[in-house]
């Protein structure tokens, strides 16, 4: 499958058609009103208003059908089942919609002057829509259907089987029996239909081909990115194992278990332990980021959100105390139990809080506030820290990105924490963003579905 979500795109196009039909219905009503009031055409108003009402009713029915189609698609997609049959059925419905729209247009034309009414050429819009939504063959069939409907209307009016409603103040003489006029208009009308379909289908075929090529390239890029991530995962896993082994060898030496060290030896060992710890921290973060990127699904469970907030606050409280930073936390009681990846969410909140502690000077303040927003909740983490420079704000959630002022305050940092947080939140269909003023503080927001 080339398109990652074809049903969503298809539904979007169907709603576009619905929107166009609302505009058409409004246009029809306005035209009937204006022409009956302003031009005094003496048209069969009841028939015209009935047709406009039919257009509105059909549109409402189509909306119901599209919504049902959308939920059926979502069900099949979540069950990873094939929904080709559903697409086939919907294609039929589009064909019927366009044919019926053409029928209503020709009926409107019949009740408002027949061949004398230039609105006839509005059927080109139907041809353009058909060419965008349907196959080339189906679009030509729609053009043939429009030409046939037009031909039937003109013939029946010509032989008097159908009455002719002349647009008297618009045309000087009654034209529906004038064979030269009928021949000329029919020729231009029919050729215009076919040329419009030919041109639009050619353009949309070219665009579809280009879109397909781009999507294929995108799939290829994603595959390459995935194999790169798999490589990073393997390498960082091996490095982590070795680093952990080095650390476990260095620690007893630093602690004097293997014999007393002279000050020079102790200094060197302490530096080695510090660097190893720092590297291990970085490799673990890299491993975590890559793991989330590669995991297709994350384990979801029900848990109390208030509990994970207190746990996350507990995780950083010691460091905050060392800097005399006050932490306040509030979770709206109505939030209660939520469903999500508990460990990941706790780590994300702990990470954001740890950043606040890291980038807030002594005696500062940090607050975490969780408010109920119905189906979702808003988590707000604010601090009175160094803030983020305006220029750095757009890149702050990118991997390895660190703002210039952060590097001055804290030399050690991976630049991975926020990118992991973003991935975790997006996996929950949530949103994360930040508002910050350099020197004043930062506020991180997370909108998370419950
Ligand atoms: P790290 O903190 O290890 O550098 P993160 O990915 O957690 O990496 O954060 C990325 C960058 O975002 C930080 O380097 C810093 O510039 C900025 N940042 C994150 N949180 C804060 C905060 N609370 N206050 C100021 N800057 C922050």
Structural key phrases:
450 residues; alpha+beta; Heat Shock Protein 90; 3 domains; 5-stranded mixed beta sheet; two-stranded antiparallel ribbon; 11 helices; binds adenosine-5'-diphosphate
Could you explain how this protein is built, in words?
With 450 residues, the chain is of the alpha+beta class. It has 3 domains: 8-177, no CATH class; 227-294; 301-449, Histidine kinase-like ATPase, C-terminal domain (Heat Shock Protein 90, 2-Layer Sandwich). The chain contains 11 helices and 7 strands. The strands form 2 sheets. A 5-stranded mixed beta sheet has the order 2-4-5-7-6, with helices on one face. A hairpin with a 2-residue loop joins strand 4 (365-373) and strand 5. Helix 2 (45-78) runs antiparallel to helix 3 and helix 6 packs antiparallel against helix 7 (263-294). The longest helix has 76 residues, at 179-254. The radius of gyration is 34 Å and the shape is elongated. The two termini are 31 Å apart. 26% of the residues are buried. The structure holds adenosine-5'-diphosphate (ADP).
């Amino acid at each position: 499958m080339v398109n990652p979500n074809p049903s969503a795109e298809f539904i979007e196009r169907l709603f576009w058609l619905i929107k166009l039909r609302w505009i058409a219905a409004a246009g029809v009503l306005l035209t009937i009103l204006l022409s009956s009031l302003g031009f005094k055409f003496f048209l069969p108003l009841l028939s015209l208003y009935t047709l406009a009402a039919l257009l509105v009713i059909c549109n409402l029915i189509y909306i119901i059908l599209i919504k049902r189609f959308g939920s059926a698609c979502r069900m099949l997609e979540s069950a990873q089942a094939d929904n080709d049959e559903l697409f086939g059925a919907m294609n039929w419905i589009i064909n019927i919609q366009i044919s019926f729209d053409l029928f209503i247009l020709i009926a409107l034309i019949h009740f408002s002057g027949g061949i004398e009414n230039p609105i006839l050429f509005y059927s080109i819009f139907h041809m353009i829509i058909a060419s965008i939504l349907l196959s080339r063959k189906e679009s030509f069939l729609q053009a043939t259907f429009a030409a046939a409907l037009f031909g039937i209307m003109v013939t029946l009016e010509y032989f008097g089987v159908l009455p002719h409603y002349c647009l008297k103040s618009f045309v000087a003489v009654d034209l529906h029996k004038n064979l030269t006029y009928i021949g000329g208009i029919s020729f231009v009308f029919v050729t215009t239909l076919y040329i419009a379909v030919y041109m639009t289908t050619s353009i949309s075929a070219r665009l579809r081909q280009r879109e397909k090529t781009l999507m294929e390239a995108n799939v290829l890029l994603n595959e390459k990115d995935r194999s790169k991530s798999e490589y990073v995962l393997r390498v960082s896993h091996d490095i982590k194992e070795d680093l952990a082994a080095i650390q476990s060898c260095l620690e007893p030496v630093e602690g004097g278990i293997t014999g007393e060290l002279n000050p020079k030896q102790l200094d060197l060992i302490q530096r080695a332990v510090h660097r190893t710890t720092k590297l291990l921290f970085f490799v673990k973060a890299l491993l975590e980021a890559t793991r989330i990127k590669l995991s297709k699904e994350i384990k979801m469970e029900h848990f109390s959100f208030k509990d994970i907030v207190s746990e996350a606050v507990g995780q950083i409280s010691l460091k905050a105390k060392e800097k005399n930073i006050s932490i306040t936390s509030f979770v709206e009681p109505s939030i209660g139990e939520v469903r999500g990846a508990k460990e990941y969410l706790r780590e994300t909140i702990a990470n954001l809080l740890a950043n606040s502690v890291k980038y807030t000077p002594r005696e500062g303040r940090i607050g975490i506030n969780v408010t109920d927003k119905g189906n979702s909740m808003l988590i707000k983490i604010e601090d009175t820290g160094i803030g983020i420079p305006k220029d750095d704000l757009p890149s702050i959630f990118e991997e390895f990105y660190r703002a210039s002022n952060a590097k001055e305050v804290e030399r050690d940092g991976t630049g991975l924490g926020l990118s992991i947080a973003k991935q975790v939140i997006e996996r929950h269909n949530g949103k994360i963003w930040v508002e910050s003023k350099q020197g004043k503080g930062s506020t991180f927001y997370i909108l998370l579905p419950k």
